[in-house]
Amino acid sequence: MKEKECGVLLHISSLPGKYGIGTLGKNAFRFVDFLSETGFSYWEILPLESTGMGNSPYDIPSAYSLNYLLIDLEDLVEEGLLSSRDFQDLEFGNNPRKVDFKKLKAFKTKVLKIAFKRYDKENQEFQNFKGNQFRYQYALFQTIKELNDGKSRFDFRLEDRYFDNEVSKEVEAKYSNLIDYYLFLSFIFVKQWNKLHSYAKSKGIDIIGEIPHFLSYDSDAMYITPELFLIDKRNIPIYVVGFPPDNFRKEGQKWGYPLFDWHYMEMSNYKWWRYRLDLSKLFYDRIKLNHFRGFYKIYAVNFRSKNGKKGIYLKGPGINFINDIKKEYPLIANDLGIYSEDVNEFVRETGLPSIRTIFENFFATKYFSESFLPSNIGENTYLYLGNHDNLPMKGLIESLNEEENKIGEERIFSEAKKLNLKVPRPLSLFEKTRFMFELAFASKAKHVSLTMQDILFHGKEARMNEPGTVNDNNWTYRFLRHDLNDDIKRDLKELIKKYNR
Length: 501
Hints:
The strands form two sheets. Strands 9-6-3-2-1-12-11-10 form an eight-stranded parallel β-sheet. A four-stranded antiparallel β-sheet has the order 5-4-7-8, with no helix packed on it. It contains 19 helices and twelve strands. By secondary structure, it is an alpha/beta fold.
């Protein structure tokens, strides 16, 4: 690893290509080539688990699921499991810059079931894969869910609502083929992922993945192993996870995820979490722990609360747990946000690299923090201009009022002086965004991450997610191959070389 480095944050789904969504296929390999040829060191992606409400990769039905929408169909054609005739008259969306999840799910499900019918289920590699306890558990849950018309587990028919061995044996006896179908999806995903990951390694590109901290209320773990969570006798949480008021939501947020029973987990030496980390270590070269503060304390709101305005803090497993697992796993503390000093001290005490986003802070009139300016960023940091939750830089600047714009420009000039950089006056919109690259690259941070939206100078229409909302635009962003032209590649290559990253 270089003393200083840089990478790109882009989810697999945002890659260009046919059939409505970015996949693990040829365009993912081409993206690795772009990173390697330009001088980047890593590719950072969002969680790969199956998605739940609102198609969010952070709202997951299982810690051991994999998102079948990212499976590459052209690879299955090459394997002889699909043909071009299987795609005729099927719709997967009309806008190549947006994922149409509703159409895509119907399209992908239909063709993947065709591929499964043609697959040799007696294949020894597949038979070995079926022995994975947690992959099997998810397949079993999905089967029961399908038998209940896709309803949430708390709306299952009465005989299925509470899981036990009797339910398991009955489903396994009658619907083993459907269980195998869901295992097949995970199996194909893992095969395709391993090819891509190996290729990235051969090109000197690390892949940084992220573990979502929480599981959905409608998850396999809540259904099959509810003892992992803080619940009442009816398996209903008293408190759920929220987030206190901040820049994004003045009334706070109610995320609704059940809380882990850390005391129960400690009795097995956190076996469930350790196995989750084991699988992630096989998938990724570095692992971001999402909502890292949750390992110290969690903001909990009443299950029946309307928002996150009123909440209490409950303790997580603490420093001993993190000190133990960091010996085995290449961890990054995803501690985004402005927190109280005790949370910051916890992160510092772990010694793990932490995360900062700086761009919105430049123009903030409230919740501004000097510590988030590039000149104050420490070395042990993954520094972002913005991430998947922020407006792209172009979109943010275009939305500023006169006061915010003036404040931001003053801070840009001030930071340039501190970092010994020359800044042109006046700054055009494009120059302002590109100069922010320079400020980040000139900082002490060992790692600097750029989003593809900022690299391509895309605006507010390219926002990946607006926190606290569920709408048809979230998580749909895609770019096209011709967006990434030779001029952009050349400029990035020169910038990376200039700052020896």
